[in-house]
Specification:
mainly beta, 7-stranded antiparallel sheet, 5-stranded antiparallel sheet, about 50% strand, globular
């Protein structure tokens, strides 16, 4: 009986510890500043779940406004989060899937992300990690250095938020001539 209680307690603690770092939260919207020839704010939000090959994905939509305009929004991609592995996966419309966040990566690990056109991969090295306090909660943070500065900028990943350049931008539009910057994460109470 003690073993069952102990196992249940460990399972609950493990689930609670992994659940606190979820990136996919349908209550939040993300504002990202995108720049190419001009600057504009893009709003991202997770809207609905779908099952693909027995795996649950959440659809990510965006609109070119400070708040998601449901009358004028576009599909960005499917995301799936595996909190046990610390990974977030991006699935493109053609069915290809890539890891775009790996929060369990260690210092000196090499991480490769897809480019927006899937023509090449973008490589980063985990330089160091620490933690930060956001809205009163301790969040794990990874600092990644681009191994090809002409293709991609350095990144900071924060559990529960994504990266300093936004959600899908991690492996998508920062390639080449584009850049983007996460402005804020909004929910009902916190910014």
């Amino acid at each position: 009986m003690r073993k069952i209680i102990l196992f249940t307690l460990i399972s609950i603690i493990g689930y609670a510890a992994s659940a606190q770092f979820r990136l996919i939260d349908k209550e939040k919207s993300w504002n990202v500043l995108k720049s190419y020839k001009d600057q504009r704010t893009v709003s991202y939000k997770f809207l609905n779940d779908t099952l693909i090959n027995d795996k649950q994905y959440t659809s990510l939509y965006y609109s070119f406004s400070d708040r998601l305009d449901t009358s004028d929004m576009y599909f960005a991609g499917f995301l799936r989060e595996d909190t046990a592995k610390g990974n977030v996966y991006l699935r493109f419309m053609n069915g290809e899937e890539f890891v775009i966040y790996n929060f369990k990566a260690n210092v000196c690990d090499i991480i490769n992300l897809p480019s927006y056109n899937l023509a090449s991969r973008i490589y980063f090295e985990v330089e160091f990690s620490d933690s930060t306090i956001i809205n009163g909660e301790k969040k794990h943070r990874l600092f990644l250095t681009s191994l090809d500065k002409s293709l991609a900028k350095d990144q900071i990943w924060i559990e529960g938020i994504g990266s300093n350049i936004g959600l899908i931008e991690t492996g998508e539009v920062q390639y080449g001539r584009y850049w983007s910057k996460l402005l804020c994460v909004k929910d009902e109470k916190n910014l």
